[in-house]
């Protein structure tokens, strides 16, 4: 009789974004200040330390092929996912949005008071991936850059 294995421990380790122009995307994420790691991968794939899960950039068509999905038609509208850059204060939200736009991001939505007591706005990276920049009750950003959630 086989011994039943315990269930795997869930974890989110890497978020991979499909990109059209890897050089432009690398330049954009470098300009935002994310720390690139494993540079030996050259322009095949780029990995960034984000203080939590790793952010990876990979050619759009190759990522689709790797996942056994069609690469066309490529969506030009909302894809059902956003990335978030949590902040410690409202002033930091404003500063991050201005910084990102200054590095080539497109402002999607100006910072505003949210209905849940937070403050947020959105920008898009060069491939249109939306990022929410937010400060929210119950979510704290520690000195370790990691998000700490209230119980």
UniProtKB/TrEMBL annotation:
Superkingdom of origin: Bacteria
Organism phylogeny: Bacteria, Pseudomonadati, Pseudomonadota, Alphaproteobacteria, Hyphomicrobiales
Source organism per UniProt: Bradyrhizobium niftali
The name this protein goes by in its record: VOC family protein
Domain VOC: 11-136
InterPro entries recorded: Glyas_Bleomycin-R_OHBP_Dase (IPR029068), Glyas_Fos-R_dOase_dom (IPR004360), VOC_core (IPR037523)
PROSITE patterns according to UniProt: VOC
